[in-house]
Design brief:
The complex is a heterodimer of chains A (75) and B (404). Chain A is mostly helical. Helices cover 39% and strands 0% of the residues of chain A. Classes of the chains: A mainly alpha (75), B mainly beta (404).
């Protein structure tokens, strides 16, 4: 059941990727807002220690820059 | 005749000068400083404190009190090579100093034993080379981590490719960690244990391996001038000793054993991140992750952060994170496991719970530098309060100083 859910979620994401792949092209000079340092996709340096304690205290990890195991005695 | 000659010479010189200027302009756009240059230095410090009453060291009951002071320094250098490719080098060193009331209970009679505190040191190195013309980046990294009962080395590689218009990017990564867990059992479960006798085996603990391998795929997409998305997928496999040897489990027949978990675990986290610039002063950063593994743990994480730019250089960012997980198949609380169980744990980090993490960040990055020092480019402070439905809570405050 859960494997089905994972597969469904992956398929939805793939569908979303293909549907947005034809988005309007944004030129370099139009990227003023996208280039703002707060718009950076990914976790910021200051969140590193937060993600570390979450990796210890929670069973799930990965994809947000948090480790998927190894390197510490966490899960 | 002289006038004509002078006019021709003048025109020729003008023409030469004009071409000379054109050539100079072309060269200036190609110019890249090839010397190794310090790009930035980041200092991250944090203070973390937690409280709870379900320590795995004492079988799912007992204090989880812990404090941790973490300090990380990260230095980044860059240079261009002859082919105008950008090489980036990063050196990072982290140190965690922690005290743990639950680890202290490896010896139940101890009061401030050797296990009550430790230091974890974790250096790492990374290198990447970016071909700006082709839009490709290749990177390698190596890391290590050392604390008294746990040693780890890690290495990885990554490759990313941007579309010609820089609106899409795909990245693949591979990462491996080779760890060694010291077999420090609860003192009463050690062979030859004599109550009241000193712990003579203190420096002779055997070790056992734990290996973690992961592959990651991410795809980013600029949707329009205000919205960009990032899709993430990891596939991770762990093998070896995946529990911790000092986690006690009390069974319903009053017997005591050390936590036992399968020697393999396969994890699939998948996530999406969306950042949206709302108007001119507000940025919404959001993240969702779905996680499933073959121990039966399914989790959902949803995170939203609203960055409000009070001035172009000062921003406040309140945030909220919700997390839910189901329990692993092998979890049961204190004295609930039966003798027929093959795998068993009373670690509440693997139990069913919800958690809420709420806080705010403050970021100050003036164009002339913090306190007028042009090299001190940014200061950021972030506080968070974490509440878990298993009667556990913690607080964390972090500081990031950036120098350029």
């Amino acid at each position: 059941m859960t494997l089905q859910r994972t597969t469904t979620f992956i398929l939805i994401c793939l569908g979303l990727i293909f549907s947005i792949a034809s988005c309007t092209t944004v030129k370099a000079y139009q990227k003023g807002k996208l280039n703002d340092s707060e718009m950076e996709l990914g976790a910021r340096k200051i969140q590193k220690t937060e993600m570390s304690f979450q990796a210890y205290r929670e069973g799930a990890s990965g994809v947000n820059g948090g480790k998927t195991g190894g390197g510490c005695g966490c899960n | 005749m002289k006038k004509i000659c002078l006019a021709v010479v003048g025109l020729y010189l003008n023409l030469v000068a004009a071409f000379a200027q054109t050539n100079t302009q072309t060269d200036s756009t190609q110019y890249k400083n090839r010397k190794l240059k310090l790009e930035e230095v980041n200092l991250v410090s944090s203070y973390y404190r937690q409280k709870g009453d379900n320590s795995a060291v004492t079988g799912g009951v007992g204090t989880e009190k812990l404090t941790d002071i973490a300090n990380i320094i990260d230095v980044k250098f860059a240079r261009y090579d002859k082919k105008f490719r950008k090489h980036t080098y990063s050196v990072e060193l982290g140190a965690d100093t922690y005290t743990s009331a639950s680890s202290d209970k490896i010896d139940l009679k101890a009061n401030s034993s050797a296990s009550s505190h430790d230091i974890r040191i974790y250096p790492s190195l990374s290198w990447s080379v970016e071909n700006e013309k082709k839009g490709t980046t290749f990177g390698l990294n190596a890391s290590a981590s050392s604390e008294f009962d746990y040693k780890s080395v890690g290495f990885g590689a990554s490759f990313s490719m941007k579309s010609k218009d820089n609106n899409r990017e795909i990245t693949v990564k591979a990462q491996a960690y080779l760890d060694k867990v010291s077999l420090i059992f609860p003192i009463e479960l050690r062979s030859g244990y004599v109550p009241g006798a000193p712990d003579r085996d203190h420096i002779q603990y055997a070790t056992t391996p734990r290996k973690s391998f992961s592959g990651s795929l991410s795809y980013s997409q600029v949707v329009n001038q205000k919205l960009q998305l990032l899709f993430l997928l990891d596939l991770a496999r762990q093998s070896g000793y995946l529990g911790l040897p000092f986690h006690r489990v009390y069974f319903n027949d009053n017997t005591l054993k050390v936590e036992s978990l399968p020697s393999n675990r396969f994890k699939i986290p998948i996530g999406i991140r969306a950042n949206y610039f709302l108007g001119d002063k507000v940025i919404i950063r959001s993240f969702y992750r779905f996680y499933h593994d073959d121990w039966g743990l399914t989790a959902h994480t949803a995170d939203i952060e609203t960055v409000i730019k009070l001035t172009p250089f000062f921003s406040v960012a309140p945030y909220y994170r919700y997390y839910h997980q189901s329990a692993v198949k092998y979890f049961a609380p204190y004295m609930a496991h039966t003798a027929s169980d093959v795998f068993y744990t009373s670690n509440y980090d693997l139990s069913k719970f919800d958690s809420h993490f709420i806080g705010a960040g403050f970021r100050f990055a003036p164009p002339k530098g913090v306190l007028g020092n042009e090299h001190f480019s940014m200061i950021e402070i972030r506080y968070g309060h974490y509440i878990r439905s298993t009667n556990f809570n913690s607080n964390i405050i972090s500081l990031n100083l950036k120098f350029k």
